[in-house]
Amino acid sequence: MSNEKNLSEIHIEDQKIIDNKELNLLESLIPVVILMCLLAYNIFFVEDQEWFGAYTNQYILLMGGLVAAAVGFFNKVSFSSMIAEVWENWKSVFVPIMILFLVGALAGTWLVSGIIPAMVYYGLQVLSPEIFLPTSVIIAAIISIATGSSWTTSATVGIALVGIGSALGIAPGMIAGAVISGAYFGDKMSPLSDTTNLAPAMAGTDLFTHIKYMAITTVPTIIITLIVFAIISGNIDTTGSADISNLLASIDNTFYISPWLFLVPGIVIAMILMKTKPLIALGIGVVLAAIFAFIFQGDVLANLSDSKFSSIINSILTDTNIETDNEKLSELFSSGGMNGMIWTILLIICAMVFGGIMDAVGALAKITKSLLAVASSVFGLFASTVVSCLGLNAIASDQYLAIVIPGKMFKKAYEDKGLAPENLSRTLEDSGTVTSVLIPWNTCGAYQSGVLGVSVADYFVYAIFNYLSPFTTLLFAALNIKIRQLVKK
């Protein structure tokens, strides 16, 4: 039987932190160590990184969950408690999973309707390799600030930028890194962002104080990011510029290209700016794209299937490959539809199993509290917060938990050190929000990889803003730059 008196729950923004007094730190770390060892073995010692087949990462996360469950049983946590927490985790990602399905449908219908080819067609004429990467950072940042969502940015302009850059001969990992850097900068600085509202709520400060204080570390980081991408753009060896005329001709011969096609993405972005729910906005984007496909791309649909209607349905649900007279474009103009998102969705579901069980047995709270216990200095407190956020992004596979749990656990410690709450809220964002996309099995990493069609391993080194942010916040703490103290009344 479960010894329920040893379990306490603190409800915060529909999230709860479970503390199990029966559990010690070593036991809490056992599932984490085993998970990391299995993942490392698959990455470094298995040639095709498919130890157990195509869904190896999913199986490894489930194995980690079983180990965590065994630790929980040993420490008197009931099976029903674990299932309940896993169910809560699954409920929390239901909407993101629906969004992923719609993004898959969107990619398919935007392809057969000519929207993505039109973006590539016009983008090739405007963006050159010499300015492409820093321009991609800026475009993604603007859209993300306006929408408050890095996910929406990737699903719209991100897909287009990867297509344009790939046609120019730029490595997809570079483009994805630029898009993600800009998207997460905008996500952090937008008052419309959920994480930008959640971090100050956890720390005990207000939204606009948080944004202003966060700009102190965020602006220098994005400037460095832009400089690095400008240098990379000026030195990359591409053949895209010489092939542009052939690429444009191939697109023009395959699709009907018109500025009218931009009505669909324009309407979707406008709906998001008007705070329409993403599921509705993306769903309308799929329907409008299907209508535009019938109107503008009859020949394309006829070549894909005997029935134009079947071609549309296939683009929504399954693989679509449009052949052109250019091999590079034929590879680019393909989509997996909803089916292409299954791997990513299963990864998220399995990650929520592992994170849910780890939370249910009290391991997440125990690890965070242990980090807090060693934070004797001001810098140590900042460093412990950063490590806690990074660890929870990897262990709990969810950026919200990486903000909520350290936010709750470290709030009093910052007060005791005489530090204003915006120090904590800024650190939560600098290390919790932006690093989530660097973990392949985290919901954010899985989403961005699935949507942009680029693995986390390929874009990791180019997501410059994301991995520089925690170092920037630690540097400012070490040098005592803009570390605001509590005002004594």
TrEMBL record:
Superkingdom of origin organism: Bacteria
Subcellular location: Cell membrane
Presence of the UniProt keyword Ribosomal protein in the record: no
Keyword Heme assigned: no
UniProtKB keywords: Antiport, Cell membrane, Membrane, Transmembrane, Transmembrane helix, Transport
Membrane-spanning intervals of the chain: 29-47, 59-77, 97-124, 131-151, 157-185, 213-234, 279-296, 341-364, 371-396, 459-479
Protein name: Na+/H+ antiporter NhaC
Gene source species: Polaribacter batillariae
